[in-house]
């Protein structure tokens, strides 16, 4: 199993929106590195749901329920999407400021490659953020 972080602007599509739908495709990614990350995702992988721009915090956990396929929002075959379903909302969201302040997360890609919308996360980083959310 691999771990990821997926960003969405909460005023466009929030974690609560995903909970209401039950499952949704993660579309609109137009960055090659983020696309390659989505192409690497496997069913059962877990990802943090991160509210970008507004809030700037990890608010929930999702699971990958369908691997990469053609993004229905474009005819360009180079862009893909995956389907995600909610696992749980974090009791306490973990802010970007808290991530940056934690020395155990100093190498986390959300800090190093902050513009990427789909980022891989190590197991240790995933576990540390879960601990921070308690």
Structural write-up:
With 134 residues, the protein is α+β, with helices and mostly antiparallel strands. 27% of the residues lie in helices and 37% in strands. It contains five helices and six strands, in the order E-H-E-H-E-E-E-H-H-E-H. The protein has helices at 15-21, 32-40, 96-101, 109-112, 123-132; strands at residues 3-8, 24-26, 46-51, 57-70, 80-95, 118-121. Strands 2-5-4-3-1-6 form a six-stranded mixed beta sheet. The radius of gyration is 14 Å and the shape is globular. The relative contact order is 0.25. The mean pLDDT is 97.
For CATH, the homologous superfamily is named as: ph1033 like domains
Total domain units: 1
Given as residue ranges, the uncertain stretches (5+ residues, pLDDT < 50) are: none
Alpha-carbon distance between the two ends: 23 Å
CATH fold field value: ph1033 like fold
Report helical residue fraction.
Answer: 25-40%
Q: Topology as H/E string? A: EHEHEEEHHEH
Give the count of helical stretches: 5
Largest sheet: 6 strands, mixed
Q: Briefly note the structural class of the backbone.
A: alpha+beta
- Mean pLDDT rating: 97
Whole-number radius of gyration?
14 Å
Shape: globular
Determine and state the CATH class: Alpha Beta
